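Researcher: Here's my situation. A collaborator sent me these components and asked whether they could plausibly form a single complex. I don't have experimental data yet, so a predicted model of the whole assembly would be a useful starting point for our discussion.
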Amino acid sequence: MNLTLHIWRQGGPDQPGRMVRYDVKDVNEHSSFLEMLDVLNQQLIEKGDDPIAFDHDCREGICGSCGFVINGEAHGPLPKTTVCQLHMRHFKSGDTLHLEPWRSRAFPVLKDLMVNRSAFDRIIQAGGYISVSTGSAPEANLTPIPKPLADRAFEAAECIGCGACVAQCPNGAANLFTGAKVAHLNLLPQGQAERETRAVGMVEQMEQEGFGSCSNFAECEAVCPKGISIDNIARMNRDYLKAKLQGVNRLVVVGA
Amino acid sequence: MESPNVSGVLDSKIPAGPLESKWEDHKGHLRLVNPNNKRKFTIIVVGSGLAGASAAASFGELGYKVKCFCFQDSPRRAHSIAAQGGINAAKNYHNDGDSVFRLFYDTVKGGDFRSREANVYRLAEVSVQIIDQCVAQGVPFAREYGGLLDNRSFGGAQVSRTFYARGQTGQQLLLGAYQALCRQIDAGTVTMFPRHEMLDLVVENGRAVGIITRNLVTGALDRHAAHAVVLATGGYSNVYYLSTNAKGSNVTAAWRAHKRGAFFANACYTQIHPTCIPASGDYQSKLTLMSESLRNDGRIWVPKNPDDKRSPDQIPDADRDYYLERKYPSFGNLVPRDVAARNAKSVVDEGKGVGPQKNGVYLDFADSIRRLGRKTIEERYGNLFEMYDKITGENPYVVPMRIYPAPHYTMGGLWVDYNLMSNVPGLFVLGEANFSDHGANRLGASALMQGLADGYFVIPYTIGDYLADFLNAKTPTDTDAFAAAEAEVRAGVDRFLKIQGKRTADSYHRELGRIVWDYCGIARTAEGLRKALELIPALREDFWQNLRIPGGSAAVNQELEKAGRVADYFDLGELMCRDALDREESCGGHLREEYQTPEGEALRNDEKYSYVAAWEHNGAGKAPTLHKEPLAFEAVKLTQRSYK
Amino acid sequence: MAWFTDFSKAAIGKKAVMAVSGIILFGFVLVHMIGNLHLYEGPGHLDEYGQFLRHMGAPALPPNGALWIARLVLLSAVVLHIWSAWQVTLMNRAARPTDYTYRPQVHTTYAARTMRWGGAIILLFVIYHLLHFTTGTVHPSFEEGAVYHNVVAGFSVWWVSLFYIVAQLALGLHLYHGVWSLFQSLGWSHPRFNLWRNGLAQAFAWIVTLGNISFPIAVLTGLVR
């Protein structure tokens, strides 16, 4: 299989970037998309060129490291699949593919297809947890949780934090990411004590990071490799609005 | 090869007293740091997986100042996230006879009697607290319709003690620990350094006092000082190049600590997981694990005739060899991981492998689908079947899966005492990075348990006892030791860039991995190990002459990162072979072909080899010194494993 | 005011303002359309209905009192609706400073993507509509109170009717995404009725749009004369 790739090349965070064309020959259809790039990179190094930088780690679709936009779609054309799990058999010889990094003000490009997603960590730091210090937990089976509820919390908790939702959203919004964590914790009985402050803290942090707002396009849901539902955004909106109607503000947490 | 220098007996600091009360008694006698003094101590935690994140979060909650480092772009991406199966705990929710003792016993036996009794007992003891902690954090474990936690039997265990969150238990547990860590970052007790790689340990006056890191974005080398350094940097399966580990998983932090004096123990104890998807070509970058729960309902077979060209569903039962069921009638397809892996290798070596590369065996669900219906199988394994289909393009409901063993976990690691401190005072090692709890083979669903036990419930107690001596001790970074370590790291980085040869780091890694896999993989022989000990140094020599690293060191340079890791794998691979050669017995994941029972089972030599082999680094090109920590078994009786 | 500033500080608050003002406007377009169905009952009924609207609330309220209260409420809703749209648009532009060089794939609906342009068309339409049928400024033969006559005469100009039809189609799309969207924005989500939200939005949009379009068509085809 032969492909024409147009890949975003950018030397560093403050350098200008541009699309560069690569003609890739004899791609094996059983290789993954990242393995195809590995092979290209080996050739680039041997030729004395700079290899294409991209984040990746587990290559099993669970760590959330990898991801870029292929022909306008975050993680490429296959639903519920990260680029590391996208295999070349889904393309055909002669295809032209455009590879670009996640584009968002909150995700500055570090190099080529690699972006800085620390904003996601700061959103979790703003309340995406249940405050239970080690050792203070009660016996696990003291709180029964109905299975359907536990399942819904699990489905929200599946988020891998890859950032595809932000990349695909025309507004560069992070509501699916934030909503998934708010929903996961606010659905569970353990999360009730901090329900309002969590929603307020995380939403306000999301704003500070420079993400856009939600226009209910549902683009995020379409490309989410874990198929996380936008119902979680609605849940976050409800909890945030309720908290704001009650005048709840973000908590300031101080260490021990 | 020179015969190893053998010396010394290591002090494991196992507390006296009966097994059941060792930990409780020990905790009662450990020295404490006053709550108001805790903030005067800085602790470095390297790694943010289950062990690192849980330790860093717990330290922060206690009030210590914590600096936590990870090479990934976020602590949430550590490779613990990929664990599928579950986490064991002796809760006995199923009333099926489980207990702390039984979990302890199963773990010691599963480790083929090459682990420390006291450590394992403590692990089983705190396992119940882990579940409580994680549930309180909001980890969405599977539940029964009554709303209580569900358990399953895992990896051939006779009791149901495995807690799970579909096939994503590791992810959910790690996110729980990550969130606890985030809470402490927000509170200001923990400072997080993502995209930072530890490249050296700084040792001063015999104590670990800090680390040198490289910022993977800017390339800057930084000095970080602390009262104690905690490594939670995972295992070294990637020495084989192809493994189920993440591409970034590496031994560098542990190895650099080893070069600074920390002993590396039981390097040859590696676990090869029997159910992985076989490699499909030479571009293959990693292997994917399929949860071993699949063996509960799948039957493993190969065609009796190696040249059978028929599609698998056309091959009648009479022409199939269900070799596990044939050789192990009572356990059948549920034999332990090492036995299943070894048998798969031998049928493939006999040329009976299946698939285009003839490098796998069938795992067939046709009988189970007939017996239970497709819907039941879908409920049990739906996501695994989907993943298999995604990777291979084959539908396992119709065509049998092809599986083959792949390196998955390493039981060996830096030597630690009962307090999880290495022989270098102030250097603590947690989780897969240490050697302590799994002996020669790890049971399924025990890795997550150990990572969290170490991080949540062991190190927060034991580190205080060490720190108590250093109240008001300064942590300067402008010392000779820091300057020397930084200069060495800088020279090392420059050395890679100066070679400007022809071959890529990956090409060396792949070749090294092949050597280690062939001679120090599923089965080892003295002859093969000796050969590997010639091949590895020769390839290493070429590596240092002919490596090509593009670009410079002052920016993102992923090839430079790889080169440093591959260089360490060369040295580690050599030590693995040395350790494997020295251990003239078979145990757990270490099978020496010379030492087998007539049935082909691992044959231990308890009289001579009932010890932990802890290796001391003596400098490049010099043979390491072997230190033996004898293993004493009081609570369990040593038996020969039999799965007939 | 401080409360409102805090509430609408985050985009989610602004979207709630947009949703609530949207609900008011949805209610208006629905009632407006239903009221206009009097057209089909002949001149007397429609003019009477106009009369009724002007004297609503009497004698408690002066003539046109209720009408002006309604107009103020509607005007505030329009202002808040546009203000919040403007605010989130600025925010969204800033959040995506660099666009993709190549982006043919779109998963969302046409309606969702055209909310801003649709909204602008609707705004222009409303201004025209007020000048046309309320003040009569741009009407060829406007007579105060003769609603039926004004409608028939107004729609007899084919290009005016065409503009009305186009604007109503834009309104239909806007209503479809808007109604569906408000459930999300206000967090009215539940697995049991989420599937209904789309149907409800479609039904609402179709009813209002078809009802409104029927008026110019009825005039142009001579059904109403």
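Model: Some features of this prediction you could bring to your collaborator: The radius of gyration of chain B is 24 Å. The mean pLDDT of chain B is 95.
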